């Protein structure tokens, strides 16, 4: 499945959170991780795991991290509604202003933080697409403190690509994906990016595959 | 963006629109139960005001604090400026305390530019003489966009009052025009600019002739000292020809909006009933001012590179 090398940052094909190493380099497709069917199954499994672990969905609030975590949180809510018959509230969280790299790079606000219900005493499941350094999740935990005091906070991610820089782990993982730091995990979701859902690994076009 | 000295620093229409889009995120922060984020923790912002202005200074200080920056207030009446310290000596003194941004208001046009040349800190122009007041223009555009936006193309704005002495009008006209609005300046001949060179606008003396085609009436404060300068005969005469009275407001289109940068002279440029009517956005302008100034401070101090 060879593809042409393209300049670093095709619109809507990367995650805004933890800095991806692609700036200014030419990146090429390396491998597909999920197609739309795999992705749907992974999300369905995570939805079941959330309900199983929390013995129902009554106290659960899903909070999506911008940008793609918001879409994933909505999909998880829809899935839980389908098999459990419970409407799980979905909130959105922009952790940008709580990041520790403001001033080191251009950190842009991504969207309004809106949590439609009081989270105090509830189980908040933070949802993001890719877990990498853990710095976005750290910032999100800080942002959450200002919103309320949940009974517990859990983390659901579509892909855990490793290379953590903080003591953070995910409770629900779509796929553990060993990557190199020079590579980029690109998530495409129809609601935001158009087209068919996909998760792909891209790497520098000038470095040999498996290099570095 | 290192400094915000004039509307020209904003990067044209695209830069202005990006800043206004981002101000939405900051507005949302100001509405939280805990309206404070740690984005500019460790930064220090000084307000250096050579002219009285309670609302603009408080708006900037509130914006800085909502971003967790420290604020210092250097007000002229209590400072060594009274003892004759020069502008640049004052700036050097402040700078040596280790600050990151200076928000300046000064009676002389160009004072913020001069300060920016002399300091490593970022400088934000909070009004210089008759020259510019860019954050006022931004918060006005932000307020209008929330009601009629995001596109303001073809929107007809009438700026009414003392255009000639107004930095609000000058910055406002530039921002409105960048966003695609058609700007008309309205006022007595003595209060209109001597030349329209550099103004992206047309001018008229006849408010009644433009009322019915206008989408936004932007009223400027009439300063009583202009009467002593004989630029218009009396407040009563001004009101009868250029004041937005109830009768004039009744001729506006139903969805025409009214703004005023404050403080208002009720009964002169704006009637009580109009100032408090549903079409008046005056109190919203003040609330939005904090969010827009947060966006400006964040763009200057939190960007880590060229953002706007």
Mean pLDDT of chain B: 92
How far apart, in Å, are the first and last alpha carbons of chain A? Answer: 22 Å
CATH hierarchy, class of the domain at 36-180 in chain A: Alpha Beta
Order of helices and strands of chain A: EEHEHEEHEEEHE
User: Which shape of chain A, going by the Cα principal axes?
Assistant: globular
What is the strand tally of chain A?
9
CATH architectural arrangement of the largest domain in chain B: 3-Layer(aba) Sandwich
Mean pLDDT of chain A: 88
Straight-line distance between termini of chain B: 6 Å
Oligomer: heterodimer
Largest sheet of chain A, described in full? 5 strands, parallel
Radius of gyration of chain B: 19 Å
- Radius of gyration of chain A over alpha carbons? 17 Å
Largest sheet of chain B at a glance? Answer: 5 strands, parallel
CATH 4th-level superfamily of the largest domain in chain B: Aspartate/ornithine carbamoyltransferase
Low-confidence spans of chain B: none
Compact summary:
Chain A has 212 residues and is α/β, with parallel strands linked by helices.
List the helices and strands and how they pair.
The complex is a heterodimer of chains A (212) and B (308).
Chain A: E1 6-7, E2 26-34, H1 36-53, E3 60-65, H2 68-84, E4 90-93, E5 123-131, H3 135-145, E6 152-160, E7 172-176, E8 184-188, H4 190-193, E9 198-204
Parallel strand pairs in A: 3-4, 3-5, 5-6, 6-7
Antiparallel strand pairs in A: 1-2, 2-9, 8-9
Chain B: H1 12-30, E1 44-49, H2 54-66, E2 70-75, H3 87-95, E3 101-106, H4 111-118, E4 122-128, H5 134-148, E5 156-160, H6 167-178, E6 182-186, E7 202-204, H7 207-210, E8 216-219, H8 225-228, H9 235-242, H10 246-251, E9 257-259, H11 272-275, H12 282-301
Parallel strand pairs in B: 1-2, 1-3, 3-4, 5-6, 5-8, 6-7, 8-9
Helix pairs in contact in B: 1-5, 1-12, 2-12, 3-4, 5-6, 5-12
